[in-house]
């Protein structure tokens, strides 16, 4: 049996909606399907404002502009994250301060966040790894006491909650990803900027429209539009929006099936000891997760590499994840690691992600588990 690590979700409505866009001739952004997506996020999650972007990277870049990141500012984030989390702020001149993660969730250690704050600190960027929530009460309390912004990197966390609140709705700003590896995709790339602070509402539209007030013009609030601020082309095409909207209409079905697959993995590892696998995913009591991924950790880097290679020979694609940003040449040039690296590098060296995608059959899940048992034995 061949079990790929990921397979892009495509639904019956997807082709219909894309064909509708092609026939309309309106392929540029902010048309019918973009508006439908924006309305869906408002109705489903209660976001006061959300804006589709070509990628989560673009959403994070917009967030960095909106909170006024300048050269000399410092931004605190985990080192165990994708490069876009750091790039968005480095591009504005900030120095990134990396801190350690907690070993049970691979999420940012809130204690280290507070210790890393200096007079130059401007923002905290918690990353909800694997759709598992950071302790947002702690982070928002720290931010309030030190007058800092919070930008949630919720790239993997759509449909996850923290104490009943949707991830992405808690920080001043947040970003979702609709990359093809995420639970919901807009056809390969895509993102969403979520605005929870009314101070940023008007300027976000301007930055997204290349620095113009074109959105006001389109709403009939002005007789012409002009250049009023810095900005860039942060609008996705209608093809991306149509692809995404087809999935938003089936969001509960997709979420339910992914959770079922996740539970199958978790039930096995909860009840079975398989050396050299030494730990499984943990979900905090305050978090309802979205089954973005299922990972296990091994006793060593060598064990991890052996298992991944051996599974591949059996037709099962499993992968490791991030190389810690602070260990890279660019990371060292543009930031530093505060405190001791107790868990970041160790976690990175020993983590294995198992296949998990919408449409994956129970037979495939069982095959992954049996293959993993055989390889470990």
CATH superfamily of the largest domain: Type I PLP-dependent aspartate aminotransferase-like (Major domain)
The largest β sheet comes out as: 8 strands, mixed
Q: CATH first level of the largest domain: which class? A: Alpha Beta
* Range of strand content: 5-15%
Alpha-carbon distance between the termini?
20 Å
Q: What strand order characterises the main sheet?
A: 1-9-8-5-4-2-3-13
Helix content: 25-40%
Which structural class do the helices and strands define?
Answer: alpha/beta
- The number of distinct helices, counting runs of at least 4 residues, comes to 14
User: Which residues form runs of ≥5 with pLDDT under 50?
Assistant: none
Tell me, rounded to a whole number, the average pLDDT: 97
CATH architecture of the largest domain: 3-Layer(aba) Sandwich
**Backbone CA Rg:** 21 Å
Order of helices and strands: HHEHEHEHEHEEEEEHHHHEEEHHEHEH
Structural domain tally: 2
Number of DSSP-assigned strands: 14
């Amino acid at each position: 049996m061949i079990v790929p690590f990921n397979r892009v979700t495509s639904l019956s409505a997807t082709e219909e909606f894309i064909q509708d866009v092609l026939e309309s001739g309106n392929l540029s952004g902010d048309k019918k399907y973009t508006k439908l997506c924006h309305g869906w996020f408002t109705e489903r999650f209660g976001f006061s404002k959300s804006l589709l972007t070509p990628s989560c990277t673009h959403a994070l870049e917009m967030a960095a502009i909106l909170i006024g990141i300048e050269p000399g500012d410092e931004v605190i984030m985990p080192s165990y994250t994708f490069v876009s989390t750091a790039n968005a702020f480095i591009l504005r001149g900030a120095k990134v301060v990396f801190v350690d993660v907690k070993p049970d969730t691979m999420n940012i250690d809130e204690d280290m966040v507070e210790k890393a704050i200096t007079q130059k600190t401007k923002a905290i960027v918690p990353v909800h790894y694997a759709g598992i929530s950071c302790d947002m009460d702690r982070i928002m309390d720290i931010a309030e006491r030190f007058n800092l912004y919070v930008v949630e990197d919720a790239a993997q966390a759509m449909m996850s909650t923290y104490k009943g609140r949707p991830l992405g709705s808690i920080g001043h700003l947040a970003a979702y990803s609709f990359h093809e590896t995420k639970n919901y995709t807009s056809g390969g790339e895509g993102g969403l900027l979520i605005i929870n602070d009314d101070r940023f509402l008007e300027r976000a539209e301007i930055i997204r429209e290349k620095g113009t007030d074109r959105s006001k013009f389109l709403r009939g609030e002005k007789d012409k539009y002009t250049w009023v601020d810095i900005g860039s082309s942060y609008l996705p095409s209608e093809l991306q929006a149509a692809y995404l909207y087809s999935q938003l209409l089936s969001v509960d079905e997709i979420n339910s099936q992914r959770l079922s697959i996740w539970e199958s993995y978790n039930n096995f590892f909860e009840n079975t000891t398989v050396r050299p696998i030494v730990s499984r995913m943990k979900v905090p009591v305050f978090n309802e997760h979205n089954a973005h991924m299922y990972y296990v950790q091994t006793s060593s880097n060598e064990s991890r590499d052996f298992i991944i290679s051996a599974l591949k020979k059996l037709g099962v694609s499993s992968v490791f994840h991030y190389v810690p940003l602070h260990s890279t040449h660019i990371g060292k040039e543009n930031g530093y690691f505060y405190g001791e690296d107790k868990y970041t590098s160790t976690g990175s060296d020993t983590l294995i992600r198992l296949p998990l995608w919408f449409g994956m059959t129970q037979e495939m899940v069982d095959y992954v588990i049996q293959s993993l048992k055989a390889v470990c034995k």
